[in-house]
Amino acid sequence: MASSLTCAGIVWAFLSFLCAAASCVGFFMPYWLWGSQLEKSVSFGTFRRCSYPVRDESLQMMVMVEECGRYASFQAIPSAEWRICTVVTGLGCGLLLLVALTALMGCCVSELISRTVGRVAGGIQFLGGKCSCGQGMGM
User: Which sequence ranges are marked TM in the entry (predicted)?
Assistant: First the structure.
């Protein structure tokens, strides 16, 4: 197999893939924040949560649902800021995956990645990293 990458480019491609995978796993896991509520351990991420309170109308009180799941809809995410965080972080993870998979393809296909494509990919990767870490766009 011919490669369009140097040795440093091949290392960059594999590290990019590992970082993109770690970012995506972190995005999908509901363990961003931990705490307790109603004497139960709770955790949540941008669009998933574990052990959350709901109002039981038959008992007329709050009870804890001890399971993990997504919010029922995008609008069910607690605040506008949290929804923006979900979108920006998701876009960042998507950009990181796009660059990582393109770089991995460059390991197998000759003349796929030129110097200009590498620089553009690095810029996209920088933007994706800023978004997936919550640092992008003034956050």
Answer: 87-109
